[in-house]
Amino acid sequence: MTDDIDQVLIKALMEDSRRSLKALAGISGLSSPSVAERLRRLEERGVLKGYTVEIDPKCFGYQLQAIVRIRPLPGQLQEVERQIQAIPEFTECDKVTGDDCFIARLHVRSMEQLDTLLDGLNTHAETNTAIVKKTPVKRRLPPME
Amino acid sequence: MTDDIDQVLIKALMEDSRRSLKALAGISGLSSPSVAERLRRLEERGVLKGYTVEIDPKCFGYQLQAIVRIRPLPGQLQEVERQIQAIPEFTECDKVTGDDCFIARLHVRSMEQLDTLLDGLNTHAETNTAIVKKTPVKRRLPPME
DNA sequence: AGCACTTGGTCGATGTCGTCGGTCATGGCA
DNA sequence: TGCCATGACCGACGACATCGACCAAGTGCT
């Protein structure tokens, strides 16, 4: 299904998704048309979901990053989910099992902004906020084999 | 510093980082050499930290995704951090303020694997695990302006 | 066993794209 | 005012992606 060569290609693209087909051909030992065909199939099958870019939020003034655990008040689950989606400063959010219904990542420019945003949520939910001090593991791929 | 055109470029690359310079030129209204120069500067300044790829972990058998809060036992902070980094199934980890020292994302193939991995950690830390049921907000950019 | 079909690859021609040098307009600033 | 730095454009050339034709290996059917 996904063989060694596909994994080499995925790994190479993970490192730099703007690599040319020719460069990928060199890395994988195939010709560039073959690489193009493999990428097409990986996309088609949904293994490769997209090509994207990593940016530094600090460059846009987002000095603070927080992980927020969110527990909606009774009957407010839908409303809270909608609110989170509507606040663009929430850059990711998972709905999880356990007492906390949502765990979300929040980027803000200041403590004041953090306070303001969470106050908005607090009419419909309890929140628990942890400020990110450091990121010991940057986003990476789980092992493939 | 970063003007409107840079933001258009970043947004376009966020959607598809394999777009050609020519395509980016069309989107931004510049010529392709100008786009190349802007990208070069954005990289140089660290705004654009890299071009990467989104893959579907399910395609590699990772059926379960969990958010794990980790509180090292007294004196075990360094050791726990090292352990997390060494376990490739942890695909991201933040060191945060509050009772929980680390919040990490874990991809596993089964409940058994989840149990095994956390048992390894539990000799040095208390953990609190929430299984991801759904992802209401996929990774996205905070507002830029 | 032999044949046809499918799958996944190479090769080479062709057109598109990126890059580089040269040039020009604009906006501080001495 | 005149100079320099910045950031853009243009055009030519070399690099790259794409497409069709072809080939080899594995599979299943008669």
Automatic annotation (TrEMBL), chains A, B:
<keyword id="KW-0238">DNA-binding</keyword>
<dbReference type="InterPro" id="IPR036388">
    <property type="entry name" value="WH-like_DNA-bd_sf"/>
</dbReference>
<dbReference type="Pfam" id="PF13404">
    <property type="entry name" value="HTH_AsnC-type"/>
</dbReference>
<dbReference type="Pfam" id="PF01037">
    <property type="entry name" value="AsnC_trans_reg"/>
</dbReference>
<dbReference type="InterPro" id="IPR011008">
    <property type="entry name" value="Dimeric_a/b-barrel"/>
</dbReference>
<dbReference type="InterPro" id="IPR019887">
    <property type="entry name" value="Tscrpt_reg_AsnC/Lrp_C"/>
</dbReference>
<dbReference type="InterPro" id="IPR000485">
    <property type="entry name" value="AsnC-type_HTH_dom"/>
</dbReference>
<keyword id="KW-0804">Transcription</keyword>
<feature type="domain" description="HTH asnC-type">
    <location>
        <begin position="1"/>
        <end position="63"/>
    </location>
</feature>
<dbReference type="InterPro" id="IPR036390">
    <property type="entry name" value="WH_DNA-bd_sf"/>
</dbReference>
<dbReference type="InterPro" id="IPR019888">
    <property type="entry name" value="Tscrpt_reg_AsnC-like"/>
</dbReference>
<protein>
    <submittedName>
        <fullName>Lrp/AsnC family transcriptional regulator</fullName>
    </submittedName>
</protein>
<keyword id="KW-0805">Transcription regulation</keyword>
